[in-house]
Amino acid sequence: MCVSLTYDLEKRITLGDGWWLPFSIARHYGVSEEEVRECYGQTKEYMVSDQFSLTKTKGLRDALLKWRKEKRLVLITNSEAHDVLNRIDLTDMFHERIPSAAKPLHTNELF
Questions:
Q1: For 38-91, what is each residue's pLDDT tens digit?
Q2: Please, which domain of life does this record's source organism belong to (predicted)?
Q3: Containing domain of residue 49, as a range?
Q4: Looking at the 3D structure of the chain, how many domains does it have?
Q5: Spatial distance between the Cα atoms of 46 and 43, rounded to a whole number of angstroms
Q6: How far apart are CA 95 and CA 75, in angstroms?
Q7: What is the pLDDT of residues 89-110, one digit of tens each?
Q8: How far apart are CA 27 and CA 12, in angstroms?
Q9: How far apart are CA 8 and CA 60, in angstroms?
Q10: What distance in Å separates the CA atoms of residue 4 and residue 25, rounded to the nearest whole number?
């Protein structure tokens, strides 16, 4: 059974990950979508700078290496190609990377 999902970012916002909570709060308090996206971009730029400290998840690279032998690994991300994967030594883990995926709005199309 396939369920169709509809996203209306004006009346209801689905919280799928940590990025959606500040987006929802900002929109609730009247911040425009353009301003929110600008701040989101600035935050992502900060996260790829040397000023940001990013911790590697212990065991993640080893697990991905194991799974990569048996499965086709695809990374679907809303980030652009210059994301933080290289900072956590995961750039070469995926058979395919789909950046700027516009999740969750376009998730069904990607699958």
A1: 998 898 888 878 898 888 889 999 999 999 999 999 988 887 766 677 778 888
A2: Bacteria
A3: 1-53
A4: 2
A5: 5
A6: 8
A7: 888 899 998 888 888 778 888 8
A8: 10
A9: 34
A10: 26
Task: Using CA atoms of 97, 37, 27, 49 in order, give the dihedral in degrees to the nearest 10.
Answer: 80
Tokens, residue 49? 């700078």
Structure tokens at 28: 């609730």
Question: CA 48, CA 86: separation in Å to the nearest integer?
Answer: 9
Is 93 found in the same domain as 67? Answer: yes
CA 57 – CA 62 distance, rounded (Å): 10
Task: Measure the CA–CA gap between 8 and 92, rounded to whole angstroms.
Answer: 35
Quote the pTM value.
0.64
